[in-house]
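Input (structure):
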């Protein structure tokens, strides 16, 4: 395989959480494992969101420190840069080095529309945009095409010559995600399998998941509301009561918006054990350990993914599979593309959710082994990233 010089952009520094780190780090890490020359450049043109207590609003020092520690932990020290919009400084690699890399890079991978496309990125021959949030990305594009000033998704789609999406069902007759006559190539979250090898024999937790309750207000499209996980979770509120004596342990980041129906007391009364993110999954190690010491995942999807029949599949669920933990997750159309029924289960309602949980309980070991096989065949970073590179070489 030809060794390529590749730049990856994401949100590792801006959102210093265990889940976000795993979502983005497995791209540069996986490409490095394939033998490519990889650099991570974070250039979101956003002010630091999470800071140490007492820091000034424009102080990016904690963001830079977290990013530096993260990249070094995964063997990418010296191959990263953080371009800070507040100070106009470039941390990690000097700006001169960043510009030199851009001039000679073969591929630019912009995950989650994270990187604003400056001239130096626009000159890279192959520019990949990864839509990790199908329907949300396209509705924002629709709004911008109709005069709304948003996050410049329109500009993103125009300045990249390859558009990839986690919405594997886009373009099918049952999918409500508008494609705007753009060519959306299909991809999945890459998982670096060696990092998820699981030696935990006795689970500490029961059926678990890690989720934001509601990270944003509802979208409005085609005279309909398109919501978050809170809408779907409430449909399964009574699930733990159908399995007395079994644990349902969920890490939930509370809502950012007051209009969301979140009640910790109500969830606990219904049998859900709720843990705050800071306690269990604040960093990459804690996040991985929580997954590895779970019995299985019971995963809720955002209403928007479900209602649009997008075909989206969670990168978090892919990590559960790689760790040998069976996954029971909500149907979004993904079961057309990834096999379910052994190690991985799709549910559409309470009855199918209950049935899937009982099936896993009957033979956890069998479904754990099957979960690893699915991860190896459908999410292995070697397969996913090679497939992406091959598609842009066609």
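Output (sequence):
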């Amino acid at each position: 395989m030809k060794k390529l010089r590749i730049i990856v952009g994401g949100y590792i520094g801006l959102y210093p959480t265990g889940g976000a780190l795993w979502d983005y780090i497995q791209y540069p890490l996986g490409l490095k494992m394939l033998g490519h020359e990889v650099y991570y450049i974070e250039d979101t043109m956003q002010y630091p969101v999470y800071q140490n207590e007492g820091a000034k609003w424009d102080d990016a020092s904690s963001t830079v420190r977290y990013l530096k520690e993260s990249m070094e932990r995964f063997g990418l020290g010296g191959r990263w840069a953080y371009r800070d919009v507040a100070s106009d400084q470039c941390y990690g690699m000097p700006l001169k080095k960043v510009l030199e890399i851009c001039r000679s890079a073969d591929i630019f991978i912009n995950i989650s529309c994270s990187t604003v496309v400056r001239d130096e990125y626009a000159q890279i021959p192959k520019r990949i945009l990864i839509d990790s949030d199908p329907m949300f990305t396209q509705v924002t594009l629709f709004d911008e095409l109709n005069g709304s000033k948003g996050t410049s998704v329109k500009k993103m789609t125009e300045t990249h010559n390859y558009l990839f999406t986690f919405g594997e069902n886009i373009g099918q007759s049952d999918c409500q995600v508008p494609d705007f006559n753009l060519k959306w190539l299909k991809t999945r979250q890459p998982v670096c399998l060696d990092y998820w090898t699981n030696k935990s024999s006795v689970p500490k937790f029961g059926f678990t998941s890690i989720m934001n309750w509601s990270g944003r207000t509802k979208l409005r499209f085609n005279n309909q509301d398109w919501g978050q996980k809170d809408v779907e979770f409430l449909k399964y509120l009574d699930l733990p009561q159908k399995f007395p004596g079994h644990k349902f342990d969920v890490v939930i980041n509370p809502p950012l918006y007051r209009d969301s129906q979140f009640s910790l007391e109500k969830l606990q009364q219904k049998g859900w054990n709720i843990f705050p993110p800071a306690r269990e999954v604040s960093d990459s190690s804690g996040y991985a350990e929580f997954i590895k010491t779970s019995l299985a995942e019971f995963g809720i999807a955002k209403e928007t993914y479900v209602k649009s029949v997008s075909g989206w599949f969670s990168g978090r669920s892919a990590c559960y599979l790689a760790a040998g933990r069976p996954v029971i997750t909500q149907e979004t159309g993904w079961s057309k593309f990834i096999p379910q029924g052994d190690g991985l289960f799709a549910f559409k309602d309470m009855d199918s959710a209950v049935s899937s949980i009982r099936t896993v309980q009957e033979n956890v070991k069998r479904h754990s082994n099957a979960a690893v096989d699915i991860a190896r065949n459908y999410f292995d970073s070697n397969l996913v990233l090679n497939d992406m590179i091959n598609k842009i070489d066609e």
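Notes: Residues 90 and 96 are 9 Å apart (CA to CA). The chain has two domains: 5-190+381-393, 193-378.
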